[in-house]
Design brief:
Strand content: 5-15%
CATH topology of the largest domain: Rossmann fold
Number of helices: 10
Structural class: alpha/beta
Strand order of the largest sheet: 7-2-1-8-9-12
Largest sheet: 6 strands, parallel
CATH superfamily of the largest domain: Isochorismatase-like
Oligomer: single chain
Number of strands: 12
Radius of gyration: 21 Å
Distance between the termini: 14 Å
Helix content: 25-40%
Shape: globular
Number of domains: 2
């Protein structure tokens, strides 16, 4: 297992870290092909030990301070992650970027709810079971037209939804700013990271495999593995587990995870992957093949509203106790503990 030098153009990319810019595909992809020849990089299909890098929501909406829901330090996280990819082009078989994907009318957006004054909740508002029971917040009748057309059913679902979150130990329903909007610029992968992903694809003859999540209006979807609530109050399926992705990840010798935000989409994805492995393979030793790049992720902090740092740290301490490896992107992979 070897580390490669970082291509010279990366220093210029770092200088342009905060730019929202177009990737020059006609330059970056041929550069990746040439890099493979120069450094004798073998196609991913011939890897004897296969490594997947899953990047959780490395999108402008979560990373860039000018966008909708920036995580403090995320742009620097993505720069370190891009550097890690370049140094380990030959060690990474497949890159799987997840992409949070939303539209206007969704259960966690302000437009979904109104109070008796006809006002929407502000971002950061926690919606509780009592809020729905006592009518402090009601489903906005206007959204019924785009969510099945049955207002009574939607009101029942709202109460069922917050109840199921509490029963399942999931995060409380929170109103988030409009973010990761499909068709919007914020939906795109951070340029410095996309550049590295495209370069890797060309150098390693490996197709990036994006995973879309979060489009169902009736549920949140922090984890790429599953929506927060799976059924309506009548027991009808809202959505399903992403078993296909987790089954594929389980076939790799190493699974590396990075991205944003550490406290939410990253932590919940890891928790669901852990559950899938235990439920379907029954061997906790397999958790040792999961490596968490702790310097390539940061928790959600909304100034003067809420700070999820402690929650994230507690979750990651538990992941380490369960056998997962907490590693740094600057430590050569050859020095990581082996599975």
């Amino acid at each position: 297992m070897r580390e490669l030098p970082i291509p010279q153009f990366f220093s210029e990319s770092q200088k342009r870290l905060m730019e929202v810019r177009k990737i020059d595909y006609e330059a970056i992809i041929p550069a990746g092909e040439a890099w493979a020849k120069t450094h004798n990089i073998h196609p991913a299909a011939s890897d004897t030990k296969k490594t997947a890098l899953m990047i959780i929501d490395g999108q402008l909406t979560f990373c860039h301070p000018q966008f909708e829901l920036p995580v403090t330090g995320a742009m620097e996280d993505m720069s370190r992650l891009a550097s890690f990819i370049y140094r380990n082009v030959d060690n990474i078989s497949k890159i799987i970027p997840t992409m949070d994907t939303h539209t206007v009318q969704q259960i966690f957006h302000a437009i979904w709810l109104i109070n008796d004054e006809g006002k929407h909740p502000t971002p950061g508002t926690i919606i509780t079971e009592d809020d729905i029971k006592n009518g402090a917040w009601k489903v906005n009748p206007a959204v019924a037209n785009v969510a099945g057309g049955n207002y009574t059913a939607l009101m029942k679902h709202e109460g069922h939804y917050v109840s199921e979150l509490a029963k399942g130990g999931r995060l409380s329903l929170m109103i988030w700013p409009y973010h990761a909007q499909l068709m919007g610029v914020g939906h795109a992968i951070v340029p410095i990271l996309e550049e590295a992903i495209q370069f890797h694809g060309a150098a390693k003859s490996s197709q990036p495999d994006p995973e879309i999540k979060g489009g169902n209006p009736l549920t949140e979807n922090y984890s790429v593995g599953r929506p927060e609530v799976l059924t309506t109050d009548g027991g009808q399926a809202i959505d399903s587990m992403n078993s296909k992705l987790f089954a594929a990840l389980a076939t790799y010798d190493r699974v590396i995870i990075a991205g944003e935000a550490k406290s939410h989409c990253v932590a919940w994805t890891i928790a669901d992957l852990k559950k899938y492995i235990i439920d379907n393979h029954g061997d906790p030793e397999l958790l040792k093949k999961i490596y968490l790049l702790t310097d390539c992720m940061s928790p959600v902090i909304i100034p003067n509203v809420i700070d999820f740092t402690d929650m994230a740290n507690t979750a990651f301490d538990e992941f380490a106790q369960q056998g997962m490896r907490l590693v740094s992107s600057t430590t050569p992979m050859a020095q990581w503990p082996e599975f």
